[in-house]
Amino acid sequence: MMTIGILGAGKMAQMLVPKLVSGGHRVIISNSRGAQSLQPLIQQLGSGVTAADPQQMLAEVDVVILATPWEKTPAAIAAAGSWAGKVVIDATNNRRGPRPEDLIDIGDQGSSEVIAKLVPEASVVKTFNYEPIPIFAAGLPAEGDSGAIFFSGDDTQAKEKVAQLIRDLGGEPIDAGSLAEGGKLHGMGGSLSLKLKLLAPKEAKVLLSSVR
Ligand SMILES: NC(=O)c1ccc[n+]([C@@H]2O[C@H](COP(=O)([O-])OP(=O)(O)OC[C@H]3O[C@@H](n4cnc5c(N)ncnc54)[C@H](OP(=O)(O)O)[C@@H]3O)[C@@H](O)[C@H]2O)c1
């Protein structure tokens, strides 16, 4: 059992909370408006989840899911305090919405490489970013053949922790490689993104080796 923090309490957080709780974990959600503003949502989400201000949330957990809008993320990270030693699961994307014109130009680097520079003393693992939220909502836990979940990162221990978390949610973790390589493959617009379903693990591995 882990306590997982989530920075952001919107659609991504609300999709993940019940799955994390069913997977045996406790969750602390946070937003910019303060813990009090989240009380109605806490009531709605049920047991296993509490709300805290970002600083308190960060101080209490080892693993934090980033689920803030791209343009709000740098300020959200800065306001939360020290990220040293944390595992940061980056679910963000550099976009304002779902349309092609909503993409925010960040040059050649992958979006999680940008995030990693904002939390240099933390270990960033990218996942849950590459399909619309309803696809993860419907596909986890997977029925029968587990739904493949791509993840990427540079820290082996952090990746093992996140892989176990993915299994706890009923998915099958598929290591797409480093943040630079894998992160781009399952970044928005990458060859592993927007299949509009969770692939079966075999299918995901074949696709991964074909695009590397
Ligand atoms: N929508 C999708 O299908 C999808 C799929 C994959 C990945 N993503 C990515 O996931 C991330 C979250 O998306 P979402 O759809 O969950 O967004 P959302 O519903 O708009 O929720 C964003 C949350 O972030 C909070 N927030 C904003 N500024 C903050 C700050 N400075 N400090 C702390 N919390 C702050 C907001 O609350 P307050 O404003 O009250 O602070 C809100 O709870 C985005 O980066 C998005 O690109 C989305």
Automatic annotation (TrEMBL):
The keyword NAD does not apply. InterPro entries: NAD(P)-bd_dom_sf, P5C_Rdtase_cat_N, STEAP_metalloreductase. Residues 3-94 form the Pyrroline-5-carboxylate reductase catalytic N-terminal domain. The keyword Ligase does not apply. Keywords: Oxidoreductase. SUPFAM superfamilies: NAD(P)-binding Rossmann-fold domains (SSF51735). This is F420-dependent NADP oxidoreductase. It comes from Pseudomonas ogarae (strain DSM 112162 / CECT 30235 / F113).
